[in-house]
Fold these 2 entries.
Entry 1:
Amino acid sequence: MGTTERGWLDDVLNRVRGFMEARVLLTAAELDVFTVLGGRASSARELAEERGWDPAAAEVLLDALTAMGCLTKHQGRYANTPEAELWLSADSPETVLPYLLHLAGLWKAWSGLTDKVGPLPPDAPAHDRTAAFIGAMHVLGRGKAHRTIAALRPLESTRLLDVGGASGTYTIAFLRANPDAEATLFDLPDVVPLARRRLAEEGLSHRVRIVAGDLHHDALPSGHDLALLSAIIHMNSPEENLALFRKCREALEPGGRVVIRDHLMSDDRTSPRAGALFAVNMLAATAGGRTYSLRELSELLREAGFEEPSVLEANGTMDDLIEARKPN
């Protein structure tokens, strides 16, 4: 793909993803966050108790607003920026809040645009949510999986466990980078056929064992020297991740390592901006998912029995990498 075509694609994808920041701001307007914070600083818990909000959800929203430059956060307390105080608080004579509330109403109307045009075709990918999600993960990973795998030193390992490996995008990149290696791909039963199909297309089926299971309920296959958790931990609560890390430890041979690919957040979880917004995505889409700081992940990994983790990549995207070893 040439530079011009890549630029066009990036522009389109950035426009589509723009709904995330718009939704955060519209939700803040509907909850009257900026008026509530007018002239003061408050913690998420204090605001939640005062307004009847969910404390954890409120913190995720306020962190995203901070990442977007609408709020400041200092020692766990949030306040309006001068611009938000001027333009977004209902108490300001210059407020544009009524316009935001009008746009929030339009959001609901625009959400029905597809139905206004006509019904989806019977074979539309949107009808199969699993296939659509797995396909999306492949689209996002296919162009960069080789760079991620290179960063985790694939020649040091010969038995990969790809936990929640979807259709095998990162397994394929690992096996291409290490011709002497084999892999186990573990994912849900309805995902396994998609993995088998893609691995067969790549001519790698003979080097991959595919195991169906649920990482929340089932043990992971054992006997590996590398476990990869690529874009997995953000779907889980801290308690769920601790249990998952313990399962990874049991699946690894002594001296084996787990590598996590995900957003690595600052300690106050307001940067990088993409990670703070992705935490809102997990708030909307999962029961307990969020993004995590390096400090939080280090504590969980140590509690699960791993040695002190190290950062392999930190570039402010979901391609950040953290590695931890099982003791010998």
Entry 2:
Amino acid sequence: MSRIETREHAMEFLFQTGFRNDPISEQIDLFREAYPEITEDDAYFLDIVYGVINSRDELDEKFVPFLKRWKLERLPQTDRIILEIAVYEILTVEDIPTSVSINEAVKLAKKYGTDSSSSYINGVLSNFVKSL
């Protein structure tokens, strides 16, 4: 499975965790039943999922200063997750260029977000990257 597909599945998984109280490992097992292409050896999927879950507060702190006229609580959940994944990749995944992380976040926003999500996420991430 490509990183593009893996990233999308990770976004879908992270979104569903907001509706379930089961342990993450159990949720992953159930998710794999629905998406058999995600195997136990899919390290990138697990890296994104656990990386975002375990460092959510720190990731949010990185991009919140660039939310123009928005507060984190008002941000659509899909946009927040897409931003968290992108910021996680930018900060921790060395073999993915920053521009690719931003581009893939914009694509996810076009698919899952509102009409304005893609341009908003592009602006937030671009400003975040400039601050590094």
